[in-house]
Amino acid sequence: MSYFLNLVFAGLAVGAIYGMLAMGYAIIYKVSRVVNFAQGEIMMLIGYISYSVALRTDASAPLVMLSVIAGAIGVGLLIERFIVRPMLGQPVFSLVMMTIALAVMIRAVVGLIWGLDPYRFPGSATGAPIELFGVYMQPIQLFLLAVYVALCVGVWAFLRFNIVGIAMRATATDSTVSLLMGVSVSRLYRVAWIISALIAGIAGVLFANIYHIGPDLAHVGIRAFPAAILGGLDSVLGSALGGLIIGVVENLAGGYIASAYKEIAGFVVILVILMIRPYGLFGQKDIERV
Fold first, then answer.
1. CA-to-CA distance for 30 and 138, rounded, in angstroms?
2. Where are the domains of the chain?
């Protein structure tokens, strides 16, 4: 039983990373109906920026956090200004292809600047594991789960009570009507990309503190994509919960079957779920009147 519980807890820790990235997928999709396939690469880029700051500031936590915020704002604004805005009015497929090209470009830039070797994040949090009912927990994993919960609550409150968040929900319902009512859709796109990049950056720094930082960090974004599909791409909190489910399923598959099955477990889950609920567990069913 303790083996099972340890697998579940470790899966929740990984799933929290997936859930954060899935929230980023969902926020952008909710506003623009575009799937950002560069989410993992954005996480990697901001993680490397924070890594460089940590090296030069003796891993000062406030400065590392400021670098995440500044990096997210810079990356989000650049993407919105030079990729999203020129593509407004074009088919969604074209913008999706642009995000794939962006992912390739970011990988190349990271390789040129930081190289292809993995690094240990400076000042990585370490400590004696905490044992509870036979489950061994690292303090950094508990901190990760706390940050995940805080982000979920913060994003929910933002979308529910903030005027910009309410405008984002309105735009997701009908962008044309929102535009006619005076809502600046381009501004909302900008805010969505910044928030998505910020969440990805936080996830990247936490992942790097637990494991390492390297070019393979981008692959976490692909493994988080099933979480967004499972929860529903138009449901931000549903996507976050989908991350926990995918993380636990992957870990159980790796623990009880074989580690190689961790890579495909999440995709198997969404194949099964989508046959039952094509719009995800918490997504809204689109109704078209003819």
1. 34
2. 2-276
